[in-house]
Specification:
With 282 residues, this protein is of the alpha/beta class. The chain folds into two domains: 41 residues, no CATH class; 226 residues, Alpha-Beta Barrel (TIM Barrel). Helices cover 35% and strands 16% of the residues. The protein is built from eight helices and nine strands. Helix 5 links the parallel strand 4 and strand 5. The protein is globular and about 45 Å long. InterPro entries: GH, Glyco_hydro_25, Glyco_hydro_25_AS, Glyco_hydro_fam25_subgr. Keywords: Glycosidase, Hydrolase. Belongs to the glycosyl hydrolase 25 family.
Length: 282
């Protein structure tokens, strides 16, 4: 073989090797992306998959197995919160276990509606529970007013029937990105105010605020201006609810576990059954 031919052959071999190496690298990247449990683009949860407390254990830790709280008021009512993750719920079993109220995820952001909402919301009512709905907030996708209206129009409404609790603003760590959704503390307070004011205008009820003390301190600067009108639902998976956010002298609800018996996250209402009915009646 002439020298020029040998040179062309060696060049072709080098190109072949480069192509093979590139192919191996691309295949490895594709495998990383598509293999469950391996870090990759598909690890970001889908919008709509969040639920009340879905980010608490990751950020704050706590009991990972069901434990009944050891520090509770003298009068409490046991409740549960559910989302699409629970599917069709056996409400009779929950009632038999002592659960007397339920909150059901209705919406998230501006597009997601819980496909199991009707079974969960109506099913809890039909077995005798007092029930309400909650909205998982995404402050980075729209104004608070837009999301409050979306919530109120898709399950978050209220009626004075003695069995419908006021809606809940679920505002917690962002499961899809930056902890505070890219908002400053003042911008977050304004967003929350926009949501709460709009919800009140739509329903005549002050929404309950669900959060953790750590998130509230980090993302609102521990703002205390909502405490006078808006009941607090504190999340803490421990034997006591711990320190509350600024302004609230007591909690109305406490989510004390994410691994409750039968199904769903479990909660305590801070009061007797007649006080829960009073909250429902406004």
């Amino acid at each position: 073989m002439h020298g020029s031919g040998k040179t062309r052959a060696r060049a072709g071999l080098r190109r072949h090797r480069r192509t093979t190496v590139i192919g191996i690298i691309c295949a490895a990247i594709a495998l990383l992306i598509t293999t469950p449990g391996v870090a990759g683009a598909d690890d970001t949860p889908a919008i709509g998959s969040a639920y009340m407390g879905s980010t608490v254990l990751e950020h704050e830790g706590g009991n990972r197995q069901y434990r009944e709280p050891t520090v509770t008021p003298l009068a409490t009512v046991e409740g549960v919160d559910v989302s699409s993750h629970q599917g069709n719920v056996n409400w009779s079993s929950l009632w038999s276990s002592g659960v007397r109220f339920a909150y059901v995820k209705a919406t998230e952001g501006t597009t997601y509606e819980n496909p199991y909402f009707a079974q969960q919301y109506n099913g809890s009512y039909n077995v005798g529970m007092i029930r309400g709905a909650y909205h998982f907030a995404l402050p980075n996708v729209s104004s608070g007013a837009t999301q409050a209206n979306f919530f109120a129009s898709n399950g978050g409404g209220w009626s004075r029937d003695g069995k419908t609790l006021p809606g809940v603003l679920d505002i917690e760590y962002n499961p899809y990105g930056a902890t505070c959704y890219g908002l400053s503390q003042s911008a977050m307070v304004n967003w929350i105010r926009d949501f709460l004011n709009t919800y009140y205008a739509r329903t005549g009820r002050y929404a309950v605020i669900y959060s953790t003390t750590n998130w509230w301190t980090t993302c609102t600067g521990n703002y205390g201006g909502f405490a006078n009108n808006h009941p607090l639902w504190i999340a803490r998976y421990a034997s006591s609810p711990g320190t509350l956010p600024n302004g609230w002298g007591f909690y109305t609800f406490w989510q004390y576990t994410s691994t409750g018996p039968i199904v769903g996250d479990h909660n305590l209402f801070n009061g007797a059954q007649d006080r829960l009915v009073a909250l429902a009646n406004g």
